Amino acid sequence: MDMDKSIIFLTKWITGSITLLLLSEIFKKQIVLGNSTMAGAMSAVICSFIFTLVLYAAPIVSGKMELKFKEERIYIVLYVFLLIPFIWIIKRLSLYTGLGISNNFIVLIVALFVSLAYFYTSKYSARYLNKLGTS
Fold it and tell me: If exposure means fewest CB atoms within 10 Å of the residue's CB, which of 79, 96, 109, 129 is most exposed?
């Protein structure tokens, strides 16, 4: 069981890194990865790790607060609202994280795409692991 959680965590982390790299290529003038001391790919890995920690804790916290959602897709909205302040903080700490975002609308776009990537990665990773019979 712990191995499945580890695989899903790593899969989300990798997916988040790839999503950030793709977004930085699509929005070249609005999203900058890396700075004078950190390479762009390393910045994507660090920021994605922070995002993964935050979003990995979201279902745990909602369970502790006894929040029940009828649809799984509500988690996308929850993820977006959780990620917006964290992305904003990470962009403000760009000297250490290497993530530069030009304006707050782009923060919303990054939060939306990362949330979608994490949600579907989580959903299909669990399905794939169940198909393999590991859980």
Answer: 96
Give the H/E segment covering residue 11: helix 2-26
pLDDT in tens, 13-47: 999 999 999 999 999 999 999 888 889 889 999 99
Please determine, for residue 1, whether its predicted confidence score (pLDDT) is greater than 60.
no
From residue 27, give the alpha-carbon distance in Å to each of 31, 100, 127: 6, 11, 32
For residue 98, the tally of other CB atoms under 10 A from its CB is 24
| pTM metric for this prediction | 0.82
Which residues fall within 8 angstroms of residue 54, CB to CB, at 6 or more apart? 82, 83, 86
Task: Please give the C-alpha separations between residue 30 and each of 56, 75, 78, 123, in angstroms, as whole numbers.
Answer: 27, 27, 24, 30
In a 10 Å sphere around its CB, with 0-12 CB exposed, 13-18 middle and 19+ buried, how is residue 88 labelled? middle
